[in-house]
């Protein structure tokens, strides 16, 4: 099982494509994971609207994956599934990777400058050291 984190960013799409190739070469299943953010105190008042938005994002990502599979059906022959859970991106990916007994985790490099200081999801996954992690730029 190869787990790929997808949040809609360019780097996460590249990571998903890389993970699909890896899964195809290893004859493994690809689990594409979208981690829906948890509501913070500041957004609690807009709870229903934020929750609906994250659900819409998950639906859009799934539709885009299906379209890519259809468009690339002669090239992208890989068994895959789309998973979505609520939570912190690091904790959600780590939990899924553990539950699925992932052979590898593939994520995109963070596109946010602040993550160089506080650490990105990718860095935290690598530091956890529980699975091989590939960070795709």
Describe this structure in words.
The mean pLDDT is 83. Helix 3 packs across helix 5. By secondary structure, this protein is an alpha/beta fold. The protein starts with a strand and ends with a strand. The protein has one domain: Rossmann fold (3-Layer(aba) Sandwich). Helix 2 links the parallel strand 2 and strand 3. The chain has a 5-stranded parallel sheet, sandwiched between helices. The relative contact order is 0.23.
In short:
The protein has helices at 10-26, 47-71, 89-99, 115-118, 121-128; strands at 2-5, 30-36, 80-86, 104-108, 133-136. The protein is α/β, with parallel strands linked by helices. It has one domain: HUPs (Rossmann fold), CATH 3.40.50.620.
Strand content: 15-25%
Number of domains: 1
Contiguous uncertain segments of 5+ residues: none
Percentage of residues assigned to helices: 40-55%
CATH class: Alpha Beta
* Neighbour order of strands in the largest sheet: 3-2-1-4-5
Question: What topology does this entry show?
Answer:
Elements: E1 2-5, H1 10-26, E2 30-36, H2 47-71, E3 80-86, H3 89-99, E4 104-108, H4 115-118, H5 121-128, E5 133-136
Parallel strand pairs: 1-2, 1-4, 2-3, 4-5
Helix pairs in contact: 3-5
């Amino acid at each position: 099982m190869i787990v790929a984190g997808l949040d809609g960013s360019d780097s996460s799409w590249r990571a998903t494509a890389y993970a699909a190739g890896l899964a195809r070469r290893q004859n493994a299943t690809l689990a594409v994971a979208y981690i829906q953010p948890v509501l913070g105190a500041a957004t609690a008042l807009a709870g229903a609207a934020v929750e609906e938005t994250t659900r819409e994002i998950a639906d859009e990502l799934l539709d885009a994956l299906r379209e890519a599979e259809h468009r690339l059906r002669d090239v992208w022959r890989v068994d895959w599934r789309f998973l979505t859970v609520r939570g912190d991106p690091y904790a959600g990916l780590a939990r899924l990777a553990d539950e699925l007994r992932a052979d590898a985790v593939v994520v995109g490099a963070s596109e946010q400058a602040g993550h160089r200081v506080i650490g990105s999801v990718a860095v935290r996954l690598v530091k956890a050291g529980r699975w091989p992690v590939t960070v795709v730029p």
